[in-house]
Amino acid sequence: MYARIFGLAAMAACLAMPVLAAVDLNDAAGSYTVNPVSSSIRFSIGKVGGGGLNGAFGRFKGSIRIDNSDVGRSQVNFTIYPESVGTGQGRIDAFLRSDAVFDAANNPEIQFRSTSVTRTSDTTALVSGRLTARGKTFAEKFTAELGGLKGGTIKFHVTGKVLRSRYGMDVGTPIYSNIVDFDMTLTGKKG
Amino acid sequence: MQAITNSTTRYGWAAIILHWLIGIIFIGQFVLGFVMVRLTSQRTAFELIQLHKSFGFLLLGLIILRIAWRLGNAAPALPASTGALERRTAPLVHLALYAFQLALPLSGWALVSVSMLEIPSMPFNLFVMPNLPLGLSDAAENFWAAVHWYLAYAGIALVVLHALAALRHHFWLRDNVLTRMITPSSAPDME
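Predict the joint structure of the above. Result:
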């Protein structure tokens, strides 16, 4: 009787495995192209008195290469088009695109090039790199967590904080925080 | 010490300083308000609007102080030569001037409170000024923007009339109505 229950439980566990088991970065080796349709790059800037300004970039492209022998040698490249910024409020979008913030007309791209990837657990890594916006480049760090791997499609949840003052985008401080909280869901397809 | 409060023949320093401080800030606010909505640089516009809000709250505080001071103090009598019509209209004109001084910053406060942009007010970056408890909508914002705009133009017209009337008293009627608002020692009345 017990054996039967155990057997059923084991079978159920086996069936559940591919879904429930944490995906290992080691199994994820390969080159991926970020799919903008199923990915999102959201940001949030806190403001005094509570709440904040939330927005997202609609257009971006990126690639993720996970080294099969050494995760540390992986590479992440990213380009965001600030023209595509959206907050749900047209006047704020126009303000962000203007020379007050992104100056999207003269600086159409925000770029991130990773310089090192440090594995922090089976499914997480710290991605360090150089972020270029409005002609200024600084070192930034993002935390990436592997969310899933299935049929050549990989999913990451990426978070990080960026100080906007360094990129000449400090307008509105201290009413609006200098810290931009990024929250990205990136889905990549192999090849 | 006595020169601080009003007497029945002259204004004291407190009333004189409040009068000129509010007058100068009011004219400055009119110019600032006129300029800030006509700039091409959105960044400068944003910063000037915050400055306009800061001075607006300062004005509101000074005006409340001024009204309290006026209510708790003697008001100097009008010159004996003042005609019957002026004697009757002068208090009404003063009431209208005080009403405008209160209504203008309050309408500005209402405007920022109902704006869908939800930009917090932080006078001189010192503290967060809460919004008035009014519903947010584009329609309400347009309404209060129009009210603020009309009050500003009517207010500046009233200031011009007020200044012309003071000059008339000084140069035409040759009484001390203007000089008693410059220093308390320019009393006593010429009678």
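The first helix of chain B runs from residue 13 to 36.
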